[in-house]
Amino acid sequence: KNQVEQSPQSLIILEGKNCTLQCNYTVSPFSNLRWYKQDTGRGPVSLTIMTFSENTKSNGRYTATLDADTKQSSLHITASQLSDSASYICVVSAHAGGTSYGKLTFGQGTILTVHP
Amino acid sequence: DARVTQTPRDKVTEMGQEVTMRCQPILGHNTVFWYRQTMMQGLELLAYFRNRAPLDDSGMPKDRFSAEMPDATLATLKIQPSEPRDSAVYFCASASGYRELFFGEGSRLTVL
Q: Do B31 and A101 touch, CB atoms closer than 8 A?
C-alpha cells in the first residue's frame, strides 16, 4: 500500500531558527515528490516538486532534499519567520503511464508554529 | 493573477439538504481534482477529470456524491442528501497536463 509518513506531527520553534521536516514514503513506482505549505484556512501552495534525479531543490529559504534510495525527503527552513507558521504537507506521485496524472499520496502534514 | 476559484467559501446546512460546490479552474488547465480535507483523514481524493472526462471517482461515496464538469470553466461537486459526516473542507485543484497542481481556497461545509 502506498504511504507517506511525516514527522514530527508538530513543531514549535523561535523566530530566526532553522528547522527540518521529514517525509518517508513507500509509493511505487515513484514519479515525483512535492512539498506544499498550507496556511490556516487557505488552500495548499506548492513549494517544490522533485523528480527521481533531483537530490536538492531550493525555493527561497526552503530547501528540499530527496534520497530516492532510502525513500526519504526533508524540507529545511532557514531563518524562520512568523509567516512560516503553517502545515507542511509531503505529497508523493506514482507513475500512471502516458500523460495521465499520477496518483497522489498525501502525508498528514507537520504543523509548524514559529514564535517571536 | 491566475487562480482556482471556489464557491461558496463557507456553507452551513442541515442534514438532508442538497449542497453544491463550484470550482472555476485556471484557464487552460485540463485536469481538475476534488479533494476533501478533515483533521482525521487529511486530504483525500474524491474525483478527478481530464479534458472534462471523469477519470477516477473511486474516492467518492456514489450514493450521495456526484461530480461533473459541464464545461471547461466549471466543475461541480454535489452532495444529496448531506450528512453530518460530510462536514469538511472541500478543495478543488487544477493542473495543466501532469504538471504543478494549484489548489483553490476551499469550501468549508458544516452539516448540522
A: yes
The C-alpha angle with vertex A102 and arms to A24 and A29, in degrees rounded to 5, equals 55
The shortest C-alpha distance from B112 to chain A (Å) reads 20
CB-count burial class (<10 Å; 0-12, 13-18, 19+) for A103:
middle
Q: Does A32 touch chain B (CB under 8 A)?
A: no
User: Is the CB of A6 inside 8 Å of chain B's CB atoms?
Assistant: no
CB contact set of B3 (below 8 Å; sequence gap of 6+) = B26, B102, B104
Please say whether the dihedral angle defined by the alpha carbons of residues A90, A93, B24 and B83, taken in this order, is positive or negative.
negative
How confident is the prediction along chain B (112 residues), in pLDDT tens digits per residue? 689 999 999 999 999 999 999 999 999 999 999 999 998 888 999 998 999 998 888 888 889 999 999 999 999 999 999 999 999 999 999 998 767 899 999 999 999 9
Among the partner-chain residues A43, A101, A108, the one whose CB lies closest to the CB of B103 is A43
